[in-house]
Amino acid sequence: MKILLNLVWITFMLSATVDAQHVNLGIKAGLNLYNVSSDDNSEYDSKAGIHVGLIGHVHLKDHFALQPEIIYSVQGAKSSEANSDDKINLGYINIPVLFQYMFDNGFRIQAGPQLGILVNAKAESNNISIDIKDDLKAIEFAIAAGLSYVHPPTGFGVDVRYNIGLTNINDTDIVTVKNNGLQIGVFYLFKHRN
Questions:
Q1: Taking the model in full, what pTM does it have?
Q2: 3-class state of residue 9 by DSSP
Q3: Which residue blocks in the chain are alpha helix, DSSP H?
Q4: What is the DSSP code (8-state) at residue 8?
Q5: Per residue in 100-125, pLDDT tens?
Q6: Distance from the Cα of residue 39 to its chain's centroid
């Protein structure tokens, strides 16, 4: 929680130091393709999910910006074997803080840290579901990197990024499990300006 408060404070302080005309708020939503990796040689397939939330866009200099977000993200993995259909369904509130380089044509490259707060977790096997939230850590750290494009006259844009989990989400250290996933989304910035 201390890290979350520090991220919010840093974002607020950076926002306060720039001209208010260069701060935009927006909404975003899109598709997730997430998986988990583990060091016990378990193999899983990617699982589709969604993400939806709020974004801020803070112009720091001519070509540099900061983009904090608060996103609800449906993640997890699945495995299909001969007589079993297994899924891990995870729900996170993700808070990425992306540093962006903005090209003059609307394209942006971005990367930064992401804090994940576990909201719900269930394991499902052959349509039988059990809660596994107590078996997982409440906080996760990741690195996010990708590309985005905003159409300057309208404020509409698209975003593609890959999130690489840095921390073990398993509450026991017997097996290390990490989240990894691709996100493809669309967003809208209210009152967007270059």
A1: 0.84
A2: helix
A3: 2-17
A4: H
A5: 999 999 999 999 999 999 999 999 98
A6: 23
